[in-house]
Amino acid sequence: xxxxxxxxxxxxxxxxxxxxxxxxxxxxxxxxxxxxxxxxxxxxxxxxxxxxxxxxxxxxxxxxxxxxxxxxxxxxxxxxxxxxxxxxxxxxxxxxxxxxxxxxxxxxxxxxxxxxxxxxxxxxxxxxxxxxxxxxxxxxxxxxxxxxxxxxxxxxxxxxxxxxxxxxxxxxxxxxxxxxxxxxxxxxxxxxxxxxxxxxxxxxxxxxxxxxxxxxxxxxxxxxxxxxxxxxxxxxxxxxxxxxxxxxxxxxxxxxxxxxxxxxxxxxxxxxxxxxxxx
Length: 279
Prior knowledge:
Layout: E1 14-15, E2 27-28, E3 50-64, E4 67-80, E5 104-105, E6 112-122, H1 130-136, E7 139-148, E8 152-158, E9 180-181, E10 185-196, E11 205-213, E12 221-222, E13 224-226, E14 229-244, E15 247-255, E16 264-265, E17 270-278
Parallel strand pairs: 8-14
Antiparallel strand pairs: 1-2, 3-4, 4-5, 4-6, 6-7, 7-10, 8-9, 10-11, 11-17, 12-16, 13-14, 14-15
């Protein structure tokens, strides 16, 4: 906290006590490398632990009289103390030498999820109703509904408050990793299909379809998303070397006005038409 940014040495030691030079621990103490010609050395260990608990309920109706549906519900919770660094862009762990304090909700944690899919082949008229059969038969209705509770959100701080050279692992003091919850998600999709079978070509079928995604046009709000999961900027950390009276203020946090405010949304209602030929 000398008033400027600097490169952190890999062989530096950690400081966990709160001092004037480290007002927001943990911090990295300055230390020269044993071999100055070497650059950063990355070490990957099987250090993190994860725990998953879940319950799944599923029910379905086989195709009977043209109707089929399947209902699935999952309750689950997932915790870990560090993400896979090989699958994410940058480490989200504040204290890489001890991940116990990083234990929290995993980015894959979603407590509730419901999915319902259905298909119905409509053929109400028999062959003795020739005109009505050609008008109202050979229709197919299908759809899927998906709903899920909010996913974990990480309260990030910009400015590299712990001065470890990683701008993506800083959080507000006292806020654990992925401790916030984002918006819920609901969406319903439908499809209407009409099947035509020309008399002059017995092996030819023509399917005309209308598909509508997010039929209810529900606004599914979304926070910042990346390979590391969802995040929101809680505050900005600013280095400051100022002395007021007998007290020295090396830095401060400035709260974000848009904290936990969605910055984007999933797709709105969309409609598409298609024509398929089978032969």
